[in-house]
Specification:
It is a single chain. This protein has about 475 residues and is α+β, with helices and mostly antiparallel strands. It folds into three domains: about 250 residues, Neutral Protease Domain 2 (Neutral Protease, domain 2, Orthogonal Bundle); about 120 residues, Immunoglobulin-like, CATH 2.60.40; about 80 residues, Immunoglobulin-like, CATH 2.60.40.1080. It has twelve helices and 24 strands. The strands form seven sheets. It has a four-stranded mixed beta sheet with strand order 2-10-9-6, with no helix packed on it. About 30% of the residues lie in helices and about 25% in strands.
């Protein structure tokens, strides 16, 4: 999975326990001390001063001195073996002792077997002057090494091969081939890779593409004076995105990023997978969307259609992105656990509150919004409402009619209620509750079994819990 959600593995593995949790202990790499290496150099007769890495692209070798006057046994020349006519390339030379260890601080004398074909400067830069092959040599203390450099006709075209489809968080490998003007393959030409958007896709010098986020990005290979590009598509199984023409490119990326974060958190923290999912962004009349609320519609057990048709979610800024993250986790959590609607009257407050709380937890773990701020905003919404109207007690929302007809912030109260329920056993209890519902257990029975208390006991405690949650001094509500 991609970097947008891999960070959750360490932040949740020791905190969330249960039969459905993925516990992944964090393994810290052992760091070798450069100080210890310096002490070794002093003990062996060296100065203890760190030297440059072995090899050079100039007139002096780098690497360990191996003593006051080490003997050079061999010289190794590295670099591209072909260059187009009129171009240049950089070679490197490394002096080594009899054991193969690099020797630093030595002067390199560069030469070419044919300056007419390819000349070489004292810095190791080769200039291609005529078609043919020349041996480029580097000499150090009477020892030398060489590399055959071929000057090719000018590059006429570049082609890229390899898979241009990759899952977010995974890698794919591309390769490039240069040809002359008549289509003959040109071997040994150095390839320079680049990507149009390194925040979505990165590319290494060997053509390895790493997909960080969902998106489509052009990856370019430059060989000589010619370039070629390929559109690499980074997707996230099992999600399929469907956008109307009214959804801007920026909004599309915002939604993709939010889905990736939500899905990654869902898999990492809760240990569950969706079989299939479609994300729809556009008008409320999109097939499968609830035209009243814009919520998801069921597309089958283990799958979901997620609709993003509330324009308030698609504004720039962290709060709007948090809204999308919460909603996507809401849908993933609902439908992956077979919450296909309401199992029986009275369960909706717990289902909705659970899904929303998981969304807030994801945002808190990512560091974009503290969970305390999320709680505070829920409390503030309830407090603001009670200034102008009477708020139904939480136990009234067991009835579906009260849930649908109440104009107050019932969802906020449900989120706070689930927050209290999970304070002891964490998110694992929500998965156990979902399993119980999907197995046909009555919700009141599942409640008492999973959370260890009766509904009456919970409702009796809730008013004190709600009143004891302080609103933070600074917060950004609207999530």
């Amino acid at each position: 999975m991609g970097s947008l959600y891999h960070s959750y593995a360490s932040s949740t593995s020791n905190r969330l326990k249960g039969p459905h949790m993925l516990v992944r202990p964090l393994v810290h790499p052992i760091l070798l001390s450069c100080f210890a290496l310096s002490l070794t150099a002093v003990a062996c007769g060296g100065s203890g001063t760190p030297s440059a890495p072995g090899g050079t692209n100039g007139g002096t070798t780098g690497g360990s001195t191996g003593g006051s006057n080490p003997t050079v046994a061999s010289v190794v020349v590295t670099g591209a073996t072909a260059v187009e006519l009129g171009g240049t390339l950089q070679l490197s030379a490394e002096a080594r002792d009899a054991s193969g260890a690099p020797i630093g601080g030595k002067t390199v004398a560069w030469s070419s077997s044919s300056d007419a074909v390819a000349s070489v400067a004292s810095t190791g830069v080769v200039t291609a002057r005529a078609a043919g092959t020349a041996q480029i040599s580097a000499a150090v203390d009477g020892k030398s090494g060489s590399l055959a450099v071929t000057v090719t006709p000018p590059v006429g075209s570049v082609t890229i091969s390899g898979s241009a489809a990759v899952q977010a968080g995974a890698t794919t490998r591309l390769s490039a081939q240069a040809r002359d003007a008549v289509g003959n393959v040109l071997s040994g030409i150095a390839t320079t890779w680049s990507t149009a958007d390194p925040t979505i896709l990165t590319v290494a010098g060997d053509g390895t593409v790493t997909a960080l986020r969902i998106g489509t990005v052009n990856v370019t290979a430059t060989m000589g004076s010619k370039t070629a590009s390929v559109a690499v598509v980074s997707s996230l199984s099992p999600f399929v995105f469907t956008f109307t023409t009214a959804t801007s490119a920026a909004d599309q990326q915002l939604i993709k990023d939010a889905v990736q974060l939500a899905h990654g958190y869902f898999r990492t923290a809760l240990g569950r997978n969706l079989q299939s999912a479609t994300v729809v962004a556009g008008a409320a009349s999109d097939p499968g969307c609830d035209t009243r609320t814009g919520n998801a519609a069921v597309a089958g057990a283990g799958s979901a259609i997620i609709c993003v048709n509330n324009s308030g979610w698609l504004n720039s800024g962290p709060v709007q992105k948090q809204k999308i993250v919460v909603r996507e986790l809401f849908h993933v959590l609902q439908y992956a656990n077979h919450w296909l609607g309401i199992p029986e009257p009275g369960a909706q407050w717990l289902i909705d509150g659970s899904a929303e709380l998981v969304g807030f937890r994801a945002i808190a773990d990512k560091g974009t919004l503290p969970i305390a701020t999320a709680r505070g905003c829920q409390v503030k919404l309830i407090a603001d409402f009670t200034k102008t109207a009477t708020l139904l007690p939480l136990n009234r929302v067991e009835l579906l009619g009260d849930w649908q007809s109440t104009q107050g912030p019932i969802l906020s109260r449900a989120v706070l209620g689930v927050d209290q329920l999970t304070a002891t056993s964490g998110l694992a209890s929500l998965m156990a509750y979902a399993d119980a519902l999907s197995n046909g257990t009555p919700w009141q029975t599942a409640f008492q079994t999973v959370f260890g208390q009766s509904l009456a006991s919970f409702y009796a405690q809730y008013p004190a819990y709600e009143s004891g949650l302080a609103v933070p001094a600074t917060y950004a509500c609207g999530v």
